[in-house]
Amino acid sequence: MATFHNHKQDIRRLVHKLVVMFSFAVVCVYLFYFLNGCCNSDLVENPDLNSVNKLLLTGWYDERNRTFPQVTTSSYGTLEDTRGSPVLETNSTAKDWTATRRLPHALIIGVKKGGTRALLEFLRLHPDIRALGSEPHFFDRHYARGLDWYRSMMPKALDGQIVMEKTPRYFVTEETPARIYAMSHDIKLIVVVRDPITRAISDYTQIISKTPDVPSFEALTFKNGSSASAGTTGQIDALWSPLWIGLYAKHLERWLAYFPLSQIHFVHGERLISDPAGELGRVQDFLGLQRIVTDKHFYFNKTKGFPCLKKPEGSSKPHCLGKTKGRIHPRIHPTVIQKLREFYQPHNLRFYQMAGQDFGWQ
Ligand SMILES: Nc1ncnc2c1ncn2[C@@H]1O[C@H](COP(=O)(O)OS(=O)(=O)O)[C@@H](OP(=O)(O)O)[C@H]1O
Questions:
Q1: Total-model pTM
Q2: Residues identified as active-site
Q3: Less crowded by CB within 10 Å, the N or C end of the chain?
Q4: Domains of the chain
Q5: Which secondary-structure segment (H or E) carries 188?
């Protein structure tokens, strides 16, 4: 009787051990698959799903919530992220764990009011790009904080992903090319250029939106503050910032002292509006990326008068850039425009020669 009882107990212990061992084996197998990313076999099988999942993994929205300790934002230094509701970083797999913060591989260095925000937001659709949402102004304002600080500002990126940021003021700041060169000799530089006259008016429109009582564009264009009608005789004030920024050849010269032209890509600001997919295609080529951002991502919003992004997977609705992009410009006296055309013409021609491209500004 006692022997039979002991035998029953032995069997119960054995079954218990087997259950524990089986559960342990199940947990191990699950962990093994999880760590190898096998749960995401769709990532390999289905290229479309691959892009979607990569977008999810890379979590393009996370920068909106990043804070910038002690960084003062400039008039154009505020984060303007135009996306819909925040998604993810919740769909993390083991691949996420290998993401690190790295110094940028590519920079949008200018020009202010050229269309730099649109370009950055469009590029952020690419799963192989991780871009900072705000402007860090590291090379022009916060250089003393050091490269570790700069790196800590960057979004986390996986191996093979390109890390980017945009600060349009870099293009016109004296010290910037040397500083960027000291960080990386082979960094890729992108400049969005736009007709310097429209660019200046856009800049001025931003100024009056913040300080409405500044003198007129016409008055500020001339050294002696001449009015529009007297403008035909006045001398252009090339040092007035909205005009000075448009002297592209002069600024480019400083960059070419450090970087070969092959490392600088010019985005045609006007075409970025009329043919965003075409411009984006060329930028993706320049960055050595597959052309993933294409015309299927854009639609023309008649109300805004600009291309906007169609509903991206993972977001609920289409989105355009915010209301500070695509402002209505004040009407400038035609005589002043003509004066500015004459003023910029030699500078523009020199710029076309240096860049090896004719941008067609009349
Ligand atoms: N898709 C789309 N939507 C809205 N706006 C667009 C777009 N593409 C280019 N642009 C032009 O971008 C101009 C603003 O340029 P930036 O983003 O470089 O300005 S800033 O320097 O960051 O302040 C902005 O200038 P304004 O029209 O003067 O507001 C636009 O003309």
A1: 0.77
A2: 113
A3: N
A4: 45-209+241-329 (3.40.50.300)
A5: strand 188-193
